[in-house]
Amino acid sequence: MADSIRQFILDSLQEMNYDVEGIDDNTQLGPRGADLRSLSLAELALRVEDEYGVKFGEDEAEELAGKTVGEFCAIVAERMDAAKTPAE
Amino acid sequence: MVATNFRGALAADPDIGAGNVLAKLIEHGAALDGPGITFDTSVDGHPAWAPFTLGTLHDRVAARAAWLHSRGISQRDPVAVYVTSAADCLLSFMALTWLGAIPALMNGNMPGDIAVEYIKQLRGVGVLTDAAHRELLEGHDLGVPILADAAELGTGDPASAPAHYRHYRDDPIAITHSSGTTRMPTAVVHSHGSLFAATRLVHLATPRTEETERTLCVLPAAHAAGIISHQQALCNRHELLYLSAQGGQFEQSGTAVLDAIERWRPTGVYGFAVTWAELARFDLTTRDLSSVTLWFNTGDCAHEAHVRRLVAAGSHRTVTREGVVRVPGSKFIDGIGSTEMGHSGFSAVHRLGSDRYGRCVGKPYDFAEIALLDLATSTEVPIGQVGHVGMKSPTLALGYWNDSVQTYRTRQAGYYITGDLMYRDEDGYYYHVDRAIDSVDLGGGNWLYTAMSEERILMRCPDVRDCTVVAGRADGKIVTDILLLLAVGADREADRTDAVREALGEPAAATLRRIVAVPDEDIVVGPTGKVRKFLMRQRHLAATAKS
């Protein structure tokens, strides 16, 4: 699952005109790494919400700046699991 | 983690600081044809309003460094800079720090007699000035020579500038001064590390936004905020237009700021509280402020009445499922801070529809440790109770220049005591009630907080543009006079007693003596537009005692 989430994130960044060369699980989304703009973080969160049916709070997009790609994938996977649990 | 971009690389460089930003940008490979600074005056034949690139800016600073070097200015030499234009101020600052000297930046609005005394007390090596200020200084014993008019430094040969001084983080890189509302402006010395700490920890560490991509700065260039704001823009590689002298004479500065917004179309506008009070003279709906997404305030806390008008103007982009759209309304960040704090210590965000006002200054920045103290016991006061603001922060200035007494008087229990009074709520939000020196003990555990009273009066009297609460002791009892600056068209004779009494609350209302609508010139302000309450209190009480 993590692989497909990572690929979706990289594809999204590319569609949003970011150069994804050299970006891996250890790359931070914010200023210490990919340096995504504030609006891009919000857009990325929205794309992930639509793709995987998870939710991010209003202030969470900004906090993603401190996460690495790997950490972000883990958060998405965790929320997908949590979303499934009550239905089972 | 390895930084993979320019901002990250700058923030991770342990040697960058407020003394060498320009040199470090170039060392890190910033494009020389990228943004430098745009000034509102001509510089060395380069026209006003025409942007400097980073390369041309560097060249103009190198010329000045060469000139100063040829006159023997060297490391640790304090040099006063007493000029009007932002260009003269900031270019002199960059050239002096190039040499490891210590620019002592002075607000051009500082009166001549005070400036003479201030320069003497600096015990420096010289003064850079301009024609207008040279007139104020000539004939007075400054203790040091006037080296030149700042513009003359541009005649130096950039190729002969010496190698940039290598700064250590504790090196003094600038002396700036407080607003000077109570006495002689206090000279405060900043270090290479302290004045850059917030740029490193906040402005290079948060996601890029359009809000500051094109910044119009109306902050006074000679102050700590002037140094921080221009370095913040340079490091983020943003465009910056720097207006001189906060837009000029305060009564006309609102027009200057609005004209500059319409002409230059900034996304962010930076100013002190006086700028927002001046903009309150205008019907903002008649001006084109659509480019503005952010208003940033520092220094004093801004008034709700002024902020609400600003967030209703401008526009911002937001992400929706239909894509990125531009919607009406802007953001106002209120960042209370001071020269000594070396940056805003707190940050409060107001938007169209947000409702946390009442002098809420938000929460402290992550880099700052704040305690609200009872100074008698050096312990923290409980939630809801007013205490003195104590601050630990990497941004704190080194101390007061040539004044160890004051440096140590303002330190307690490991904190710098800012001179502000605040309380905090259970959610961790802080509220500024007054400057300690302006608050009045009414006895019985009751206090009159002048700043909080002004806030409440402005909210209850929409036709009052600004106001000042002056309280003091007359004939053995405390009396409070309310001085109102009315909006255009307001009824001068209207009886506002009930609204003012309600704003003051009991028992302060019992001290109310009179409410006076005054002309602008009756309000005495310091060099940054901050009301000189201490002086006004003395004058007003003396005048009313005679009458």
Can you give me a brief rundown of this structure?
Chain A is mainly alpha-helical and 88 residues long. Chain A contains four helices and no strands.
Describe the structure.
The complex is a heterodimer of chains A (88) and B (547). Chain A has 88 residues and is mostly helical. Chain A contains four helices and no strands. In chain A, helix 1 crosses helix 2. Chain B folds into three domains: 138 residues, 3-Layer(aba) Sandwich (Rossmann fold); 237 residues, ANL, N-terminal domain (Rossmann fold, 3-Layer(aba) Sandwich); 108 residues, ANL, C-terminal domain (GMP Synthetase, Chain A, domain 3), CATH 3.30.300. Chain B contains 15 helices and 29 strands. In chain B, strand 14 and strand 15 form a beta hairpin. In chain B, helix 9 crosses helix 10 and helix 13 crosses helix 14. At the A-B interface, helix 2 of A face helix 1 and strand 12 of B.
Give the SSE layout.
The complex is a heterodimer of chains A (88) and B (547).
Chain A (H helix, E strand, L loop, with lengths): L1 H14 L22 H15 L7 H4 L5 H16 L4
Chain B lengths: L5 H7 L8 H7 L10 E2 L14 H17 L7 E5 L3 H13 L3 E5 L5 H11 L3 E4 L1 H7 L8 E4 L22 E6 L9 E5 L5 H7 L10 E4 L6 H12 L3 E4 L7 H15 L3 E4 L1 H7 L14 E6 L4 H8 L3 E6 L2 E6 L2 E8 L4 E2 L1 E6 L8 E5 L4 E6 L4 E2 L6 E6 L6 E2 L3 H6 L1 E2 L2 E10 L5 E6 L4 E4 L2 E3 L1 H11 L3 E11 L2 E10 L10 H8 L7 E6 L15 H14 L1
